[in-house]
Amino acid sequence: MVHMLSSMRTQLAVHYEHGARTVALLRGRAWFDVRHDAEHPFRVEAAGSVAEDIGTAFEIDRRLTDESVETSVQSGSVRVSSRNNGSSVILTVGQRAVWRGDHVSRETDIAPDSVASWRDGQLMLTSVSVRSAVQTIARYRDGRTFIIGNIDDLPPVTALVDARRPDDALAALASGTSINIYRLPGGIVIVRRKN
């Protein structure tokens, strides 16, 4: 049995055949609660990464901006591997890994209850770049969000924000970092480094 929730604007393709259960995460993030079945393995493919259930609840976040894929484990364990070179790590409760360009690396552990916190309307951003924080929050906005100029060398941020109020979250991010937010008609937001 598989329970699945996905965030707004997530795109999935489901393939159940030949005894395997495979979900392709084309964009966005999704949370899976899987009962392990060795005869019917469950895998999530995103970009060039593969996360395979070993009996777990876990989140996959595919970031279109840098084509990285983050996997975080809420309970149980999951194997994350690169489809092309076979490198892999096994994650357990509170652990996370990021796949980038055929390499899987362990990241800083997180609190298990913060995994897929977006399901409750909260976004836990743990030591992420300002660009990544803006892009994550922008997923929940109705209007378009544009980043103008270089903000990649700003210090990383850690924050818990309300996904139901993304414009307030952007404003809070701006007040704690070196960025300005400009609002335009039609719900358009421009994010720019402070001079």
How do the strands and helices of this protein lay out in sequence?
Elements: E1 2-6, E2 11-17, E3 20-34, E4 42-46, E5 49-63, E6 68-82, E7 88-92, E8 96-100, E9 103-106, E10 122-128, H1 130-138, E11 145-148, E12 157-162, H2 166-176, E13 179-184, E14 188-193
Parallel strand pairs: 3-4, 11-14
Antiparallel strand pairs: 1-3, 2-3, 3-5, 4-5, 5-6, 6-7, 6-8, 8-9, 10-12, 13-14
Helix pairs in contact: 1-2
Describe the model:
The protein has two domains: 111 residues, Sandwich (Jelly Rolls); 73 residues, 3-Layer(bab) Sandwich (Phage tail protein beta-alpha-beta fold). Helix content is 10%, strand content 54%. The chain contains two helices and 14 strands, in the order ββββββββββαββαββ. Strands 1, 2, 3, 4, 5, 6, 7, 8 and 9 form a nine-stranded mixed beta sheet that branches. Strand 5 and strand 6 form a beta hairpin. Helix 1 runs antiparallel to helix 2.
